[in-house]
Write a structure and sequence with these properties.
The protein is 47% helix and 14% strand. It is globular and about 80 Å long. The structure holds phosphoenolpyruvate and magnesium ion.
């Protein structure tokens, strides 16, 4: 038995024979051309064909794996006609280099440039530029694509797999991916996660060609790949696989089922997203709505302030794709750990206690107005809620609402449609907001508790500092007592309350939240079905009163 260790990037256990991906290898031709014009046109023909092929792959990816996967190929289409890339190739062809050599050399240059970047995401783009170039090269040379030539399903091994190679594979033949190179943000990893196939990357030289055909178990959870497992290891990992499959099947049966406890209490399970590309995951996992759209990702992914139109299009897309289900978008939460150069925020000693989120929005009304206009314009296309992050005082909410009214009045005056039914909410992320929740509840339609920050600010513990370990304890009775207080204040004032921090998906606390009467839990899409399962297994009559009493006593089971 041999065990080699890589990085597990997509969970699940794959068991089967190891098979190395066959790649069509053609020797790169190098020669001098005299008719550079004709050679350029030969390149342009191959480029156009590649873009067309990528369009078809994007359609296939959209069908099999959703918008996020399709976007990979749309990005490749853009890369294939990137001006710098094209100019580099044109320059070489004009010097008499044949198209194949010009494409291959340009790909090497661009890949080296990406690999040298600090950012791991940008480094992973080196594989993309090679993938696009290989496609153009195979069209130029008339080569056929590689694949799996096996009758039985296999664990597919490779040095690395390009996204286009991954999406073209017959998925019924793949039990898992194991690669020498690659990272958690490589596209093989992204696609494997979307498709729910176990994947282990970064095995390096320990993944040897001589293992081909041997019996292998790959554990995407731990990153271990076991070749010729002994009986004990095989039994243990097969048990793990069966348990995961059993759970997976159980969770599948929960799709379409209500989130209701044994004693008839229901809770809404919504999802947290970062942009329109995440909506597919919400739908696949049967999320009831979107409880937190972190709008700052639009800003983080841009080089300068996204325009009103750009924001409007992103919000509208999410609202339309959610087809009438509730979508709560929180206004920009920049500052603290999310810094953006173009915001030109002055250096702060304690950014988590500084210019952050709503504080920036209220200090820069024009910036805020742009986002609010985009939000209200989009509201005409679905059921929108808007919530404000990092609130401490009632006046902040009044000021934010006043700006909302101004924006609506302006849209009305200009005949631009918007919805009059937009719910307004406060994120409860600071002890001040929790303590003032009786007053804040009179100003808004709902509360959403951001427990990541609420824990940080209540316990005076930096959420970014891993060394704080057990001191950063979201189960701390101080945090739970605040949540109970906020829930009671919300209900006394007839508004609903949710949790959108990581704690919402913490199954150890599901019973506690249900006992408190939390109305909505907003979690990452993959956490929806496990949470639904936990809700449906709960009977709040059993331990509910004890749990609530323990929050009042000195004793608490959660300290
Ligand atoms: C939170 O603080 O719990 C929250 C949901 O917001 P973020 O994690 O984006 O700060
Ligand atoms: Mg927060």
């Amino acid at each position: 038995m041999i065990t080699i260790q890589g990085k597990g990037v997509s969970t699940g256990v794959g068991v089967g024979p190891l098979y190395f991906y066959r790649r069509a290898t053609t020797e790169l031709k190098r020669y001098t051309v005299t008719d550079t014009d004709a050679e350029w046109h030969r390149f342009k023909g191959a480029q156009t064909a590649a873009i067309e092929q990528l369009g078809k792959l994007a359609d296939k990816a959209r069908e099999e794996a959703g918008d996020e996967a399709a976007m990979l190929f749309e990005t490749h289409q853009m890369m294939a006609e990137d001006m710098d890339y094209e100019e580099a190739i044109e320059g070489m062809i004009n010097e008499g280099v044949n198209a194949e050599a010009a494409v291959a050399d340009t790909a090497e240059q661009f890949a080296a440039m990406f690999s040298a970047m600090d950012d791991s995401y940008m480094q992973a783009r080196a594989a993309d530029v090679k993938d696009v170039s290989d496609r153009i090269l195979s069209i130029l040379s008339g080569a056929v694509q590689g694949g799996i030539d096996s009758e039985v399903p296999v664990l597919l091994a490779a040095d690395d797999l390009a996204p286009s190679e991954t999406i073209q594979l017959d998925k019924s033949k793949i039990l898992g991916f194991v690669t020498s190179k690659g990272s958690g943000s490589s596209h093989t990893a992204i696609l494997a996660r979307i498709l729910g196939i176990p994947a282990i990357v970064g095995l390096g030289d320990s993944l040897k060609p001589e293992y081909e055909g041997r019996s292998v178990i790959a554990d995407g959870g731990t990153g271990a790949v076991v070749i010729d497992p002994d009986d004990e290891t095989r039994d243990r990992l097969l048990k793990k696989r069966d348990e995961q499959l059993r759970l997976q099947r159980l969770l599948e049966t929960l799709k379409g089922q209500p989130n209701i406890t044994k004693d008839g209490k229901s809770v809404r399970i919504f999802c947290n997203i970062g942009g329109p590309e995440d909506v597919h995951a919400v739908q696949v996992n049967d999320g009831g709505g979107i409880g937190l759209f972190r709008s700052e990702f639009l800003y983080l992914n841009a080089k300068t302030y996204p325009t009103e139109q750009e924001q409007y299009e992103a919000y509208k897309k999410v609202l339309e794709d959610m087809d009438g289900k509730e979508v709560i978008i929180r206004t920009c939460d920049i500052g603290a750990d999310k810094q953006i150069d173009y915001f030109e925020l002055p250096h702060e000693e304690n950014p988590a206690l500084g210019m952050r989120a709503l504080r920036i929005s209220l200090s820069r009304p024009d910036f805020f107005r742009t986002q609010l206009r985009a939000l209200y314009r989009a509201s005409a296309y679905g059921k929108l809620g808007i919530m404000f992050p990092m609130v401490t005082s009632v006046w902040e909410i009044r000021e934010a609402k006043k700006l909302c009214e101004e924006v609506k009045a302006d849209l009305h005056a200009n005949g631009i449609p918007y919805s009059e039914d937009v719910q307004i909410g406060v994120m409860i992320e600071t002890p001040a907001a929790a303590i003032m929740s009786d007053r804040l509840a009179k100003e808004v339609d709902f509360f959403s508790c951001g427990t990541n920050d609420l824990t940080q600010y209540t316990l005076a513990c930096d959420r970014q500092n891993n060394d704080l370990g057990r001191f950063y304890n979201p189960h701390h009775p101080a945090v739970l007592r605040l949540l109970k207080m906020v829930t009671d204040n919300a209900h006394k004032n007839g508004i609903w309350v949710g949790i959108c921090g990581e704690l919402g998906a913490d199954l150890e606390l599901t019973e506690t939240f249900l006992a408190m009467g939390i109305d909505e839990l907003s979690v990452s899409p993959r956490a929806v079905l496990p949470l639904r399962n936990a809700v449906r297994m709960t009977d709040t009559r059993e331990n509910g009163p004890k749990i609530l009493a323990s929050l009042e006593d000195d004793f608490t089971p959660h300290v």
